[in-house]
Design goal:
alpha+beta; Serine Threonine Protein Phosphatase 5, Tetratricopeptide repeat; 52% helix; 10 helices
């Protein structure tokens, strides 16, 4: 492992534009200051003020155990807009968060809602491009992150079946319950998408995917995936003319 490299600089000589303040916990200790991701070297640059001196540091990605960053201003409002079906109004603020917080905790959650906003607007290609830009910095975000399920939806919309299948296999293989649950929900979505609105496809999605998640993934990390599976199951029950079961499923999802 590379050690954290540090060099003391005179404050007036420091010439970096720092935007995001936070704390990095690494193998050799903990540092609080202005943090910036450096794509080319795959390191975090840190600027720490000590009196009239600025200490510059670089921490390789492999050495990072945890990064603590305050929630970006406007994040909650943007999420609310997306969840209320007004995603177009949140695109500008979410785009800025994704850009400013690259590899700094909040890029993937913001990226998720930005992708969802573009999907809701019927622009799957733009959703795919946004997700791909984030994934280019962190490959694992394609199968185990806040972003992953939204990225999978973009792949499904664009018929990128090979990429989607690879992501789902990797999600299932991670051993992460939440990723596995989300992957199983997505398999139901694929069944429905390929089923030409047939009753058989809705029944298969229920038995092979949505109800399995609802019944088997009851632990807290899987709560969101489970609620999603229940809502999708309700839609399937509606399509099958089983209104009472659909309503019961929606009610249960709302209590999670």
């Amino acid at each position: 492992m590379n050690k954290l490299a540090m060099a003391a600089l005179v404050a007036l000589a420091a010439s970096s534009s720092w935007a995001i303040n936070g704390t990095i916990k690494g193998e050799k200790g903990m540092w609080t200051g202005d943090i910036k991701w450096q794509s080319r070297s795959k390191t975090y640059a840190i600027s720490i003020k000590k009196g009239n001196t600025v200490v510059s540091a670089e921490c390789p990605l492999d050495n990072v155990e945890r990064i603590d960053i305050d929630k970006p201003a406007g994040f909650d409002k943007a999420v609310e807009l997306v969840t209320r079906g007004q995603g177009a109004s949140a695109i500008a603020s979410l785009t800025k968060i994704v850009q400013d917080y690259k590899m700094l905790v909040w890029d993937k959650p913001a990226g998720r809602y930005l992708v969802e906003a573009y999907l809701a607007a019927g622009n799957a290609q733009k959703a795919y491009e946004i997700a791909s830009g984030i994934i280019s910095e962190d490959k694992s975000a394609a199968w185990s992150s806040d972003l992953a399920p939204a990225y999978w939806q973009a792949l499904l919309k664009l018929n990128k079946t090979t990429q989607l299948e690879n992501c789902l296999k990797k999600a299932a293989a991670t051993g992460d319950r939440a990723s596995s649950a989300s992957a199983l929900v997505m398999r139901g979505d694929v069944i429905v998408a390929n089923g030409a609105d047939s009753p058989e496809s809705y029944r298969q999605a229920l038995t092979d995917s949505y109800l399995r998640v609802a019944l088997m993934y009851t632990d807290e990390p899987c709560r969101e995936a489970r609620a999603t599976a229940m809502r999708k199951a309700a839609t399937c029950f509606d399509k099958l003319g089983m209104a009472a079961r659909a309503e019961a499923m929606r009610t249960q999802a709302g209590t999670l």
